Amino acid sequence: MKTKILMLLACILFSSLNVAAEQQSVKAGKLTTNTDLHKQPKYQSDVLTQLLANENVNVARRHRAWYQVLTAQQQRGWVKMLNVRFVGVMKRQGELGVKSVFDSLTKQVTPTASTGIRGFDEEALKTAKADLEQLDLLASYQGNAKRAKDFARAGKIKSNLAISTAVTQN
């Protein structure tokens, strides 16, 4: 009985920690390149200013392939998400944390890791359709040893066994 009560209290504690972490949605970021600060999350939107590479921004939210940011000069707008790198973040909050480990012990499930595709939101991924012609085209690019040798011969590329051996060993 005491064990069940302790487990329940621990579960409540871990759940409240996870909710608190999710509420801290503003994340520190740094721009990877010079980029335009747009009024709206679309290319056709008015450009408010140009931000410089390595400038720090606070990311407030995401809409498709755009982040709404607040600059050090208190300008708010939208930048392409591929131009932002988060600083000091080792993993996304809520993934494979203490709560997941605890759940794996109490619910007989194991934690899983997942990835997302930057620039696509959940709705876009749900409505995506496979293009089998493009998949066949991709498969046609597959190489083999004979093609590689023919390519090297045509380009007068010579093998340097000493260098390639050293590279593959490191």
Automatic annotation (TrEMBL):
Keywords: Signal. Pfam families: SH3_3. Residues 1-20 form the signal peptide. Gene3D superfamilies: SH3 Domains (2.30.30.40). The keyword Signal applies. The keyword Signal applies. Residues 34-80 form the SH3b domain. InterPro entries: SH3-like_bac-type (IPR003646). This is SH3b domain-containing protein. It comes from Thalassotalea insulae. The lineage of its organism: Bacteria, Pseudomonadati, Pseudomonadota, Gammaproteobacteria, Alteromonadales.
